[in-house]
Specification:
The complex is a heterodimer of chains A (111) and B (611).
Chain A (H helix, E strand, L loop, with lengths): L21 H9 L11 H5 L10 H10 L5 H5 L7 H5 L6 H12 L5
Helix pairs in contact in A: 1-6
Chain B lengths: L7 H24 L3 H10 L3 H17 L1 H6 L1 H29 L12 H4 L5 H6 L1 H29 L14 H28 L7 H11 L4 H22 L7 H13 L10 H9 L5 H5 L12 H9 L5 H5 L6 H5 L6 H13 L19 E4 L8 H14 L3 E3 L10 H4 L4 H17 L4 E4 L2 H10 L5 E4 H10 L11 E5 L12 H10 L1 E3 L22 H16 L5 E4 L2 H8 L5 E4 H8 L16
Parallel strand pairs in B: 1-2, 1-3, 3-4, 5-6, 5-7, 7-8
Classes of the chains: A mainly alpha (111), B mainly alpha (611).
Chain lengths: 111, 611
């Protein structure tokens, strides 16, 4: 099978004691439409940056939702902000504001 | 002192305060300009022609209110009667006062309260000499002129629709104080002058004298006391108005004068907040013309329009949501009677907030070795509307153009989506990368399918080659006979993309091309007033539902002439409309491609494009 590079199926144990879900709660306040996400991956499939690198907004959001946001500030900085993800989103998630919010919520929080 | 009375004090203090405030603000804004712009001012004040043209505009816009007249005649008259009327009252009042004082240097309050100070002069002198009579006539006429504007201003608060406005700006306390004191100034002047004329049975004009006589007749108490009270009130409201002016919207009056001078001296908005921005912010009269044209109203957003955005800047309480909730479509900028560049201001404020967000585009490290005469940049959005790309490719082939499709496989964003969100610093990397790729192709012409890219190529890329949007390029191909075309009877409604229309003033090329393809119908809101499709990248904070409401408003407008097809020249507009349009939405390139007769081609390979 062709590997499209935006799979989220990785072995993982979610430890709710160490995961910090606060960022996602703040994200929901900043952009309530994140709750509409069904994780279909259309955003990552169309992403311009993803064609060059491993950048994966679907994965990034999933990790932040789980409370594993370490390193997401460096990851989100690869986004070129072109807005294609938002245009293809079947659920109407306002991805550009979501990305702006991820920037401001995760930057200067971890190294 | 003969020509002094304590009642002049509120006026005098207010006047001193307002002059001090204006001088201080002007000085602050001029010194807040970048060095290069300050030099422009130094050069400008030595240019009599520039000063003259600035004075002409100050007269036309500040006093006559030409652009307001264009907006709505009633609105224009209201502003003109108040501004020009008051100005002429000051001019004529000063001239009149010289007759009585016999000197060229009067105390500043003397002309304002002249009728009180001169009531005891010789009655004969008053009544018979032609010059004083002329001035008394003019002063009364001008007072009526101003009062007529006042009546309209009062009506406007109730019936704003008569003035071509659906909504007016909400007021804050200081604006209310300034507004009410302004409204009271002229009725009180009328009363004070009339009571004086009535009590002394002379000295009034054709308007104030009869009113004064009537007041004297019906007045039960001593009218000397009342007339003195009226002069006090008149001075007090003038004082209150002057004291509230610097912090109120009426600061726009002195600010606009400086703004007009700035513009005539060639000072343009910069990427950062400067003295020019300050002058623009204070020049906003909060007339509210920008409110009605804003499509966000349709989506139920009523507190982020240019007037509120600018007020928040001035009052230093700008919230992130206000900055972010704007499509940057430029409709308000087109109608602003003061000519404030609302889009530039919005982006300046976004830059202040977001320029330090991280960016890392080191992954962009590939080098094309493609060569061609024409470099074609389809843009990110066109990858979501592949029919545009395939149409362009077949037209290129048809015309025999040696083209390079720069972003065929991977697309690097042009940078404008970042810039429109205030991230200019971050966009620089993308711009540099794309610029290098474009130049490597050796092409003499850059054609793009996306108006967003087109605008940023022109404004930020500093490319030594010609740049065309595909609507202009295709028109060129058709005009030079390199593409055969067979028009058919099809009603086409054209939608102006914001960045192509208002952004780069490209209104005619797409229309000219469409007229060759089919039958172009008129659309109510078009060209400079065209609606945004609702898909704007400038709008950061809005829900999909709100966007849909704006899309359907734009669609309704396009569909009003029952077109067979909606044409646009932007992949983003196409993608946005196609979701909900009942008729076919096609890009101008697709329409042209369909009009090329099959098997009838006069293309010859190897012909190079006229650069």
């Amino acid at each position: 099978m062709k590997n499209f590079g935006y799979s989220i199926q990785q072995d993982n144990t979610i430890d709710m004691d160490s995961n910090d879900r606060l960022i996602h709660e703040q994200l929901r306040l900043r952009e309530p439409s994140v709750d509409l996400c069904i994780g279909c991956g259309s955003c990552s499939a169309t992403c311009s940056s993803a064609q060059y690198t491993g950048f994966n907004i679907r994965l990034l959001h999933t990790l932040i939702r789980r409370g594993e946001f370490s390193g997401s500030d460096r990851e989100i900085s690869k986004c070129m902000f072109c807005g294609k993800c938002q245009l293809v989103c079947p659920r109407g998630v306002n991805l550009r504001n979501l990305i702006m919010a991820i920037h401001s919520l995760t930057e200067h929080r971890n190294g | 002192m003969v020509n002094f009375n304590p009642f002049v004090l509120p006026f005098l203090l207010g006047l001193l305060y307002v002059v001090y405030s204006i001088v201080r603000s002007w000085y602050g804004w001029i010194s807040g300009l970048p060095e290069t712009d300050r030099l422009k001012i130094k050069a400008g004040i030595r240019h009599p022609a520039l000063i003259l043209s600035a004075l002409k505009e100050i007269f036309m816009e500040g006093l006559i209110h030409r652009r307001m007249w264009k907006q709505n005649p009633l609105l224009g008259y209201m502003h003109m009667s108040l501004a020009l009327g008051w100005f002429l009252l000051i001019v004529f009042g000063n001239m009149e006062s010289r007759i009585y004082s016999g000197t060229h240097l009067n105390a500043p309050y003397y002309p304002i309260f002249l009728k009180y100070f001169i009531h005891d002069r010789l009655v004969i002198f008053f009544e018979t000499m032609p010059v004083p009579r002329f001035f008394r006539f003019m002063m009364d006429l001008l007072l009526i002129f101003v009062l007529s504007g006042l009546v309209l201003a009062f009506l406007k608060r109730r019936k704003s629709k008569w003035f071509g406005m659906q909504k007016t700006t909400g007021y804050k306390l200081n604006d209310r104080i300034a507004l009410f004191s302004l409204w009271l100034i002229f009725p009180l002047r009328l009363l004070a002058e009339s009571y004086t004329a009535g009590y002394y049975a002379s000295g009034g004009g054709f308007f104030t004298q009869p009113i004064g006589d009537f007041l004297e007749m019906i007045n039960p108490v001593s009218s000397e006391f009342v007339l003195y009270l009226m002069w006090w009130c008149y001075s007090l409201v003038l004082g209150i108005f002057f004291f509230s002016l610097p912090k109120s919207r009426y600061m726009h009056i002195p600010s606009e004068i400086l703004l007009i001078v700035f513009r005539h001296f060639g000072i343009q908005p910069k990427k950062t907040y400067s003295g020019l921005s300050d002058a623009e912010v204070h020049s906003c009269s909060r007339c509210g013309v920008c409110i009605d044209v804003c499509q966000l109203n349709t989506a139920g957003i009523t507190n982020t329009q240019a007037v509120y955005f600018i007020r928040s800047i001035r009052e230093k309480e700008l919230r992130e949501k206000v900055t972010q909730t704007c499509m940057v479509c430029g409709r308000c900028q087109e109608v602003c009677p003061v000519g404030i560049r609302t889009d530039s201001l919005r982006l300046i404020k976004r830059r202040e907030r977001y320029s330090d967000q991280l960016s890392d585009y080191r992954f962009l490290a590939e080098n094309h070795t493609l060569l061609g005469d024409v470099v074609y940049f389809s843009g990110c959005m066109s990858h979501l509307t592949p029919a545009i790309i395939s149409s362009m490719k077949s037209i290129f082939t048809e015309a025999g153009v040696a083209f390079v499709h720069l972003d065929a496989e991977r697309s690097t964003c042009c940078g404008r989506p970042l810039m429109i969100a205030g991230k200019d610093r971050q966009a620089k990397d993308l711009i540099e990368f794309n610029r290098r790729l474009i130049l490597q192709t050796g092409a003499k012409l850059l054609v793009t399918s996306c108006p967003i890219c087109y605008r940023v190529f022109r404004e930020e890329y500093n490319l030594p080659i010609k740049i065309l949007h595909h609507s202009q390029y295709l028109l060129d191909l058709v005009k030079t006979g390199r593409i055969p075309i067979q028009g058919e009877f099809r009603k086409i409604a054209y939608h102006d993309p914001c960045d192509l229309g208002r952004g780069t003033k490209t209104y005619e090329a797409p229309r000219e091309l469409l007229k060759k393809i089919g039958d172009l119908t008129e659309v109510k809101e078009e060209a400079a007033n065209g609606y945004c499709c609702g898909g704007s990248l400038g709008l950061i904070e809005a829900t999909q539902e709100q966007r849909n409401m704006m899309t359907s408003e734009a669609l309704q407008c396009l569909l009003s002439g029952n077109p067979d097809v909606i044409a646009t020249a932007c992949p983003l507009c196409k993608k946005t409309f196609a979701r909900s349009s009942p008729v076919e939405v096609l890009d101008i390139a697709e329409l042209l491609c369909k009009s090329v007769p099959k098997g009838l081609s006069y293309s010859s390979s190897g012909r190079s494009h006229p650069a």
